[in-house]
Amino acid sequence: MIELRAVTKIYPGGHVALRELTLRVAAGTTVALLGPSGCGKTTTLKLINRLVSPTAGEVWVDGSNVRDGDAVTLRRHIGYVVQEAGLFPHLTVRDNVEVVPRLLGWSAERRRARTEELFALLGLELAAQGARYPAELSGGQKQRVGLARAIAADPPILLMDEPFAALDPLTRRRLQIEFRDLNARLRKTVVFVTHDIEEAFRLGDQVAVLSAGSLVQMGTPEEIRAAPVSEFVASFLGLIKAERSAIGAE
Fold first, then answer.
1. pLDDT at 121
2. Handedness of CA 161, 83, 122, 111 (dihedral sign)
3. CATH no. for residue 51?
4. What is the pTM of this model?
5. What confidence score (pLDDT) does residue 239 get?
6. Are 3 and 23 in contact (CB under 8 A)?
7. Domain region containing 242
8. Among 89, 88, 66, 92, which Cα is nearest to 77's?
9. Partners of 193 in the β-ladder
């Protein structure tokens, strides 16, 4: 479980990325953070794995305040997937996937077995692609490798920052389906950042709509579609425009 309580994050110069944000992510669920650019979505992810610290409030992961433990240890138990995969260009695909298991001291045999398992799970060919470097892969292959690296040590929590945004529409749709099916088996706790409304509704068990650093509404996709709490939510989701078009057509 992840809990952020009344978090404030102010960057140098007075820029406020988050104002008041209370967010609860139940274990085994996927929450999509949705909102316009600059609303605090990526900062929320960074608060969870302590890449940044709140200026006020608290962040709890699995019952522990993230400030109480070692930040590196925390991050090694949280998978992180970013746009365009963020792979290390000087490492082979296999070595990229094995980064965290190696840091955790896994044996070579255990790392090899886990890599083979993940390649099969994500539709990658270890013999053909394991020795390649990221520059030799397609965009879709890079994202699969990035996901494999993020879950290699089987972390209970997965943070995803617009991982499919740079892909063409067909590849993006295919990877969305693959991720949804994969997590139906793995049941990770996922916090997923996106600008894409359809992606948020397709992948999120819950959708949290943010604006200007605050949480505006949170609920299932069906709840938010049926009862947006404000004109901002309705207009952001395109609901107002759709309703007006329907009225005009009558």
1. 87
2. negative
3. 3.40.50.300
4. 0.88
5. 63
6. yes
7. 2-77+157-249
8. 66
9. 33, 161
